[in-house]
Write a structure and sequence with these properties.
Low-confidence stretches: 1-13, 363-377
Helix content: 10-25%
Shape: globular
Structural class: alpha+beta
CATH superfamily of the largest domain: FAD/NAD(P)-binding domain
Number of helices: 8
Mean pLDDT: 91
Number of strands: 19
Largest sheet: 8 strands, mixed
CATH class of the largest domain: Alpha Beta
CATH topology of the largest domain: FAD/NAD(P)-binding domain
Order of helices and strands: EHEHEHEEHEEEHEEEEHEEEEHEEEH
Strand content: 25-35%
Distance between the termini: 30 Å
């Protein structure tokens, strides 16, 4: 299949590609990059219903720290940490920022914490309490870990797309309205009136798992979509402030230095929502829930925490990302349901997805790339 061509206003067919990526969030862009690293010269198109990084990636807190509740997630976190390190060396202007990390948990939790944090995190007990907190609740302790970072995830996705554009065709503002998988590939109907044919499809829809174009394929996975809420704390972080993770509350306080405020993320319990029906504004109920979680650690921040961001994300039954073929011909690979950790685990998800998409025996007329491979070591 050849490289995708421009589509005329009459909605004529778009030329075929080796891989079509549906979704230009952090996972979709990472996977497009991974495909080209593995198979230089492959033809790739990325289809995005809005603009690059405009969905869940735009609302993400972008926090990465070396932790995982299961063996698989810990392994994925380790892979992603190494790959982000290499990516930042390659693209020095990437909007990714190192941040110190303090974990707050019951004082007797040391053994439990060592089971979930990576060995390279260097988990260590500390007597230093972050200044943003009003001390520690009775019975709690503090631990420091290494390897934390946070990112402007939309900015990272856009930077990846910019680097990929010489080799990848981005179809922004274009929805996939239908898909048919056959033994010889997949045909995608586009909202613009055209058709895109692909040998393989990477489906990275973020929380749009119930879209009619692919809902029947994803229904057996048992995915659910949950609202994600974070408050903006209108207090400027000091240069040395780091993230504070509240282990048992599944919450964190993040100093968003480049924006000049803190962010408090807590676990909202509103399930089975649809992204197109989730308003972008906070409700009094959500503010009250967040305040109830924050009050135990930093009650003086409550008056400063009445604004924020709201969206949603897809979750899997076992709280580990899902990467698997979902159509009868194994031509469509779903990658997602990252359980709120899309940025943190995106490089590892992309690596697994690209492995399932290949091997590609491209019939593309595009010659092999003359630029150096971006493969990570």
């Amino acid at each position: 299949m050849g490289r995708v061509s421009a589509m005329g206003v009459s909605g004529v067919d778009v030329s075929g590609v080796d891989v079509a990526v549906i979704g230009a969030g952090i996972v979709g862009c990472m996977t497009a990059r991974e495909v080209l690293d593995r198979w230089p010269g492959a033809s790739v198109a990325v289809v995005e219903g809005d603009a690059v990084g405009s969905g869940a990636s735009r609302r993400s807190a972008g926090l990465h720290f070396p932790r995982g509740a299961s063996t698989r997630v810990r392994e994925m976190a380790g892979v992603s940490e190494l790959r982000y390190r290499a990516l930042r060396a390659e693209l020095p202007g990437l909007p990714v920022y190192d941040v110190d990390t303090t974990v707050i948990a019951p004082g007797n939790a040391d053994g439990r914490l060592r089971q979930v944090y990576l060995p390279g995190a260097g988990l260590r007990r500390t007597d230093v309490v972050p200044e943003v907190l009003n001390g520690l609740p009775e019975g709690d302790g503090a631990w420091q870990v290494s390897g934390g970072q946070y990112a402007d995830v939309q900015g990272v996705a856009q930077a990846l797309a910019a680097a990929l554009r010489p080799e990848v065709r981005f179809l922004e503002g274009t929805r996939v309205t239908g898909m048919v998988s056959g033994s010889d590939g997949v045909e995608l109907d586009l909202s613009s009136g055209g058709t895109l044919r692909a040998a393989k499809v990477l489906l990275a829809p973020g929380p749009w798992v119930a879209d009619p174009a692919w809902a029947s394929w994803l229904e057996p996975l048992g995915l659910r979509v949950k609202k994600v809420v974070a408050l903006h704390v209108e207090r400027r972080p000091s240069p040395g402030d780091g993230v504070v993770v509240f282990e048992d509350e599944d919450a964190f306080l993040l100093p968003v230095h480049h924006r000049g405020h803190w962010l408090f993320s807590y676990t909202c319990r509103q399930w089975d929502v649809l992204p197109e029906q989730v308003p972008g504004h906070l409700t009094p109920v959500e503010i009250a829930e967040a305040h109830a979680a924050l009050a135990r650690f930093a009650p003086e921040l409550l008056p400063l925490s009445t604004t924020g961001r709201v969206f949603c994300d897809a979750y899997s039954p076992d709280r580990a990302p899902v990467v698997r073929a979902v159509d009868p011909h194994s031509n469509v690979v779903f990658a997602g349901a990252a359980n709120g950790s899309g940025y943190r685990l995106a490089p590892a998800i992309a690596a697994e997805a690209a492995a399932l998409l290949g091997p590609l025996h491209s019939s593309s007329t595009v010659p092999p790339r003359t630029v150096a491979s971006r493969s990570f070591t």
